[in-house]
Structures are given as C-alpha cells and as structure tokens.
Amino acid sequence: MKRDGFGSKLGIIAAAAGSAVGLGNIYRFPCELGNNGGGAFLIVYLLIVLGLGVPVMLSEFVIGRRTQKNPVGAFRMLRPKSGWPIIGYLGVICGLIILAFYSTVAGWTLEYIVKAVGDQFSGKDLSVIEQEFSDFHNLGWKNVLWQVVFIFLTAFVVFKGVADGIEKYSKILMPLLVLILIVLAIRSITLPGGTDGLSFLFKPDFSKITGSVVISALGQAFFSLSMGMGVLITYGSYIKKEDNLLSSSVSVVLADTLVAVLAGLVIFPAAFSFGVQPTAGMGLVFNTLPMIFNQMSGGYFFCIIFFVLLAVAALTSTISLLEVIVAYLVEELHINRRWATVVAAVASAIVGVFASLSLKNGSAFSIGGNSFFNCLDFVSSNILLPIGAFFIVLFVGWIMGKSEFFAEVTNEGKLKMSIKGIVFFIIKFLAPVAIAIIFVTGLF
Ligand code: PHE
C-alpha cells in the first residue's frame, strides 16, 4: 500500500534522532537539571534513560511498523472494539500540547539567529543580556510572532512531505551540532571557575533526590526521547521493513543522551563562571550561551551557526509532533493532507499563543500561580508521557504478545537476534513495573 505522508520511507535513525534531539536536550535538560539538584538528577536521569529508553522506543516502533498506521489507527487495528485506541488519542492530544509550548521556545531560536547575525550580544555584560531576554518575553507580541513563524515553517515541511529531505540535511547538521557542542564545552570548562559547574554536574548530592526530582527525570527522559505519545509509532509506520528496530533504538537513545550530557557540559561550567544561577530556568540557557560566545575567538560566527543548528534541531522535532496529529486526521478522519496540516497547525498555534503570553510578567494566563506554559509542560511531560509509555509497553508485552513481537523485531525471522527473549521480558515485566513505581512514588 502506498501511504500518504513523507515522500519516501525514512531512514529510521535519522528520523527518530531528528525527533529526539532538540530543545529537550539543549534547553529543557539543563533547566530541569538545574532545578532538581544537579548531579543527583543526572544519575536518576541516566538510569531511567538507559533502563527504559530502549524498551519503550522499541515497543513504539514495533506497533507502528506492524500496523503501518497512526497511533489511534494502530491500536484500533491490533485490538478492534477495545479501549486501547484511547492511548492513541491521548498521544495526539499530548502532541498538540507539546507543540503549543515547544514552539514558543523554538521561536526564540529564530529571534536569537537574528540577534546573532546583527552582532547584538558582543561586548555586553550578563546583566544587559539578561535584561534584554526578559524585555523580549515581556513584549509578548514578538514571542508570538516568532512562534507563529515557526509553526508555519513546520506546517510547510509537513504539508510538502519534504521531511525526508530535511532528514537528509539533518544527517549532516546533527553531527555538526555535536561538534560545535564539544567546542563550546571545552571553552566553557576552561573558563575561570568553570570546574564548579563540573562538580555541580558530576558530584551528586543524594540527599537531593526527592519525589519531584524522580518524576522530573522520568518526564525529561520520555520528553527527550520523544516517547510515550506516538511519535515513534507514527515514524515506525514509515520505517523500512528491513531496518533493524532494536539496534536503531539503541543508537537513538545513546545519541540523544550524548547531546543532553554535552549540553550540560556547555551550560553549567559557564553558568557558574558568569554567576548565572542553576535554577534560572529559561535564562540559564538563553543568557549563558551568548556569554560563552562573547568569550571565544570567532564567537560571532559560532553564535550564528549554533542558533541555526538549534533551530533546525527544533524543527525536526516539531515536524514529528505535527506529523502525529496530521497522520491521525488524514487516516482516521479522512481529511485531506492540506487541510489536516492547516487544522493541526492553527490549533497548536492558538493554544501556543496563550503559552507564550503566559510568560509575561504578571500575565493573567496562569493556573495556581504557575504560568500556562509551565502547566502545559508539566502535564504533558511528567504525566501524559509516562502514562502513555506505561500502556504502550503493557500493550506490546501482554496484548500483542511474544510471537508477534518476535516477528516484527526480527523482520519476520530475517534477523538473528539472540537477546530478543530478554528484551521481551523487560518490556513485559520490568518496564511497566518500573514506570509505575517511579510515577506513583514520584507523584505522591
Ligand atoms: N524530543 C524532542 C526534544 O528533545 C521533543 C519532543 C517530545 C518531540 C515529544 C516529540 C515528542 O526536543
């Protein structure tokens, strides 16, 4: 069957890594780490990513490639007339929520490209850069403008079905991002006082591990790997039948984790050196980075290249989010691809505008003292993604069952895979139990 969607079958690693690597690694990871006690968070995060990343990712790929469908259609096909499609619906809604607040930050990368090209950071003190960042928030309309531009760009790519072209670029651009992160990390660590940042990252204070640290690490792990809401089911449905799902999952998990840790190595030494608080949240990244470029020879060019790469990394993530909603609308509601893209983009832009405006000082868009932006972020990452992931592994382990799972991971027996039994055991027993325990103890 020729499916609507991306122009051609995607290279699995490029596509999934494109979705995984993004603002989650470079912006959200340092924020969460800084707010949740540094090194202790890093340890919990790494344990979760390395323990749960592969089983959950693989489960999503298996469901997607087996059914060749969007998340709702996939569950419906495998278990017609059951409640399972609810997990798919949850994923589509979660995609809309994430796209709404993610596009706010994605928009900032565009603003920062413009600033970088105009050489607007150089020679400025931290206090000036901080002031300009907070002024930018408080303007409101400018955030919204960039956000809408970003969603438009995303919609353009998804509608044109040129995502496979984007993936080809990202095969070159993502390694370049890693390279530039390495250069920045070296600069950051060698700044005066930079080693304090290393201690913050790598000297865990275990007394800092609380329920909220654990749940934040769980949410961040799933968010960063794009897991638990059907992006990887949808991408799984576009994956070639001869790709190796298991080894690809391992590669994507490792690549994503590498980028996150590198981001930590860039941000924290510099933040400690310049006196940016690790709990500074958004400013942690958006104020520290320009300061690093200010301390580098060739900083002007590095700054431009970095923010362009960051924007592209964000774009390959927003494409995956929008694609989930569009695939659902096209395949289940039989809306044509053009209208499906328009509807999904407009809906996320409308929710997104409130997210952006909620970041203004004294904004009315807050719930219980938290900005609407933070509420969307918390509910989707720390609640919906773990719930989604829990039911996805449960589905593969208990409903789909061993023989169908084996058939799909071994490409109908073509791949020799001696560890498939162990992997299935982890998916069936360990992963759901671990997610449930972390989620419940973390939340309560
Ligand atoms: N993983 C992406 C990032 O780290 C964000 C994302 C989350 C994308 C969930 C799709 C689904 O930037």
Quickly give the structural class. mainly alpha
Overall domain count: 1
CATH arch. level architecture: Orthogonal Bundle
Query: In the CATH scheme, what's the topology name?
Result: Hydantoin permease
The percent of residues in helical segments reads over 70%
Spatial separation of the terminal alpha carbons: 47 Å
Strand adjacency order, main sheet: 1-2
What spatial form do the alpha-carbon principal axes imply? Answer: globular
Ligands, ions, cofactors: phenylalanine
Biggest pleated sheet: 2 strands, antiparallel
Q: In angstroms, what is the radius of gyration?
A: 21 Å
Mean pLDDT: 93
Order of SSEs:
HHHHHHHHHHHHHHHEEHHH
Determine and state the CATH class.
Answer: Mainly Alpha
**Fraction of residues in β-strands:** under 5%
| Secondary structure: number of strands | 2
Low-confidence regions:
none
Topology:
Elements: H1 12-20, H2 23-35, H3 39-67, H4 71-78, H5 85-117, H6 126-139, H7 141-160, H8 163-189, H9 194-202, H10 211-224, H11 231-238, H12 245-274, H13 282-294, H14 299-332, H15 337-357, E1 366-367, E2 370-371, H16 372-400, H17 402-409, H18 420-443
Antiparallel strand pairs: 1-2
Helix pairs in contact: 1-11, 1-12, 1-14, 2-10, 2-12, 2-13, 3-4, 3-10, 3-11, 3-12, 3-16, 3-18, 4-5, 5-7, 5-14, 5-15, 5-16, 6-13, 7-14, 7-15, 8-12, 8-14, 9-12, 10-16, 10-18, 12-13, 13-14, 14-15, 15-16, 16-17, 16-18
Bound molecules: phenylalanine.
